[in-house]
Write a structure and sequence with these properties.
With 388 residues, the protein is of the alpha/beta class. The protein has three domains: 170 residues, Aconitase, domain 3, CATH 3.30.499; 97 residues, no CATH class; 106 residues, Aconitase, domain 3 (2-Layer Sandwich). The chain is built from 15 helices and 14 strands. The protein has a five-stranded parallel β-sheet with strand order 12-11-10-13-14, sandwiched between helices. A four-stranded parallel β-sheet has the order 8-7-6-9. Strands 3-2-4 form a three-stranded parallel β-sheet. It binds FE3-S4 cluster. The site of FE3-S4 cluster has 16 residues, from strand 10 and helix 14.
């Protein structure tokens, strides 16, 4: 891989040990994946932010680093809300370790925006090269915005953040962004009547598509549906980019390439079968973190109601701070609005036996990550279950 003089100097240790280590990570990644060079990135999003997922080893590694990030860099959700952790049954010991992780990232110059929806922070535009780590954010950036990022691991994203560059391979190259499988829905109209089912569709599609790039035809999801669809496909498959005919920005570039693609048909009854009834102890909404529109919709569905089961709504600090009225309405119902963290990377759900979610990604992850049984429903069904 070709490095410029400055990069060579970093690799030789001319700008300190941390930068040298970070450059070594990028060079190793570049060699493994056959990159010719490093390219500048517009922003980075770093995973490995919750003490629940990185533990003591991760914390020590972060504390051993001494440098500053070179581009705007934000964090994935951490393991607790920074201010109200003690209201949510988080232990002091966990909170102290989590705080140490926050401090370590702060020292590195990472912004304290702890969210899996960094695209709401206006961090990226069409064609930007990024180094993002959160799989649901990666698939959204690539597919919906038309930015370019591989699905980075935590150390790779942090290395790119500190150097301000990433190896040019994979989805940074247009040639690797073309679709390689067609996906259609049989009975899309039936599904539409159910409400927001794109998380469930993505849950099934991801299992079939695996690591390929799907081109969907005949669907017209809203923006938040695109988020749910991509997040679920990234969880049950390793999808980092999808196209939708007539909708996503790069679909038009590849519109003549659908001939000869393998076709996957998802049947409405497969999606319906996921929505099994089961008694639940708690309900969690906001995977990926709720958008402003979703927050407003939840607030209006809860208006004048009281929750009878614990209901948690997860979103980013930024979205919550700009939508006080919605937050207040949700809180008045007895539901908890939780910033900075989520149902998967925090210990919040671990005290329950069964949890209902409205997200294909959470449905896939909550059982293993929290040790609970999961039920999936539409957002409206989640709110009905929490309030009746
Ligand atoms: Fe975000 Fe947590 Fe879901 S990080 S995508 S809310 S699992």
């Amino acid at each position: 891989m070709q490095l410029d003089l400055e990069d060579e100097k970093i690799l030789q240790g001319g700008y300190g040990e941390t930068r040298q280590k970070m450059m070594e990570i990028l060079v190793a990644l570049g060699k493994v994946f056959g990159a010719d060079k490093l390219i500048p990135i517009a922003s980075a999003q770093v995973s490995g932010a919750s003490y629940k997922t990185i533990g003591e080893w991760g914390l020590r590694w972060l504390e051993s680093l001494h440098a500053k990030v070179a581009v705007p860099t934000v964090l994935n959700p951490i393991g607790m809300p920074r201010e109200t952790w003690d209201e949510l049954g988080i232990s002091r010991d966990f909170a102290e370790r989590q705080q140490a992780i926050i401090n370590a990232y702060r020292q590195l110059g990472v912004k304290m925006e702890c969210t899996c929806t960094p695209y709401y922070l206006q961090l990226t535009h069409y064609g930007d090269h990024l180094a993002w780590a959160e799989s649901s954010a990666v698939v959204y950036a690539n597919s919906v915005i038309g930015a370019r990022t591989n699905r980075e691991g935590g150390p790779g994203a942090l290395a790119a953040a500190i150097i301000g560059k990433t190896p040019e391979y994979g989805l940074h190259l247009l040639a690797n962004r073309k679709p390689d499988v067609m996906v259609t829905l049989d009975g899309a109209c039936t599904l539409k009547n159910r409400g927001d089912v794109y998380g469930a569709i993505g849950y099934i599609a991801g299992k079939r598509v695996e690591n390929r790039i799907p081109l969907f035809s005949g669907i017209r999801p809203r923006r938040d549906d695109l988020k749910a669809l991509g997040a679920a496909m990234a969880a049950t498959g390793t999808v980092s980019l999808f196209h939708i005919e007539g909708l996503t920005p790069e679909a038009r570039i590849f519109k003549f390439m659908r001939t000869g693609l393998e076709e996957i048909v998802i049947e409405a009854h497969e999606v319906d079968a996921l929505f099994q009834e089961m008694d639940v102890d708690a309900v969690a909404i906001g995977c990926p973190h709720c958008s402003a529109i979703e927050l407003e919709e939840i607030a209006s569905s809860l208006d004048g109601k009281k929750v009878k089961k614990p209901l948690f709504v997860f979103s980013s600090d930024r979205v919550l701070h700009t939508h006080h009225a919605a937050v207040e309405k949700i809180t008045r119902s007895g539901a908890k609005v939780v910033p900075d963290t989520c149902m998967v990377v925090s210990p919040i759900m671990e005290r329950y036996r069964t949890v209902m979610v409205d997200s294909g990604k959470a449905f896939a992850y909550v059982p293993d990550m929290c040790g609970v049984l999961a039920r999936i429903g539409t957002r409206k069904e989640c709110i009905r279950v929490a309030t009746s």
